[in-house]
Amino acid sequence: MDICLRKQLIVTTCSGWIRIWNYHTKTMENEKKCAAGEEATAVAIHPSGFHIVVAFIDKVVFMNVFSPEIKEYSPSTVLSIKGCKELKFSNGGHMIAAGNTNGQIHVYNFYTLECMLTLLGHNNKIRCIDWKEDDTGFASCG
Q1: How many C-beta atoms lie closer than 10 Å to residue 31's C-beta?
Q2: Is 75 helix (H, G, I), strand (E, B) or coil?
């Protein structure tokens, strides 16, 4: 689950579905069924509310949020990160951190998909990532 404060949206994943809810009107705005055999393990919504990033067992997929539907970017925007269980956008939305079950955190530029940093050191899987208010760093928990 992730929250977008600028547009009053919550994105959730459950049982092969990705759903976007409006927490002000208490209604579901959008939903997308995952492909057969795939189940989302983590999700993050861009601070603008126009994009989401979804982690599956063997990849991380970038998607656009349009009014009637959620569409995947082109196939070249799929990142091959295995075991990603935590995704977190920076407060400005220009970076995204992805933590996996091996205790690694990969930081990507959201607009170019360039891997800016790979951090090692956690003994267990990453459970939480939280960016500093000015996006100059983040804290992680494993």
Answers
A1: 13
A2: helix
Q: Are 90 and 98 contacting, i.e. CB atoms less than 8 angstroms apart?
A: no
Taking the model in full, what pTM does it have?
A: 0.91
Instruction: Give the C-alpha separation, 111 to 85, whole Å.
Output: 22
Q: Going from the N-terminus, what domains does the chain have, and what CATH number goes with each?
A: 2-141 (2.130.10.10)
> What dihedral angle (degrees, nearest 10) is formed by the CA atoms of 41, 111, 30, 90?
60
Neighbours of 93 (CB within 10 A): 19
**Is the C-alpha dihedral spanning 7, 51, 97, 15 positive or negative?**
positive
Is the CB of residue 98 less than 8 Å from the CB of residue 115? Answer: no
Q: Which amino acid is at 6?
A: R
Rounded to 5 degrees, φ, ψ at 77 are -95, 15
pLDDT, tens digit (0-9, with 9 covering 90-100), for 1-44: 999 988 999 999 987 899 999 999 999 999 999 888 888 999 99
CA-nearest of 114, 80, 124, 126 to 139 is 126
Would you give the DSSP letter of residue 57? S
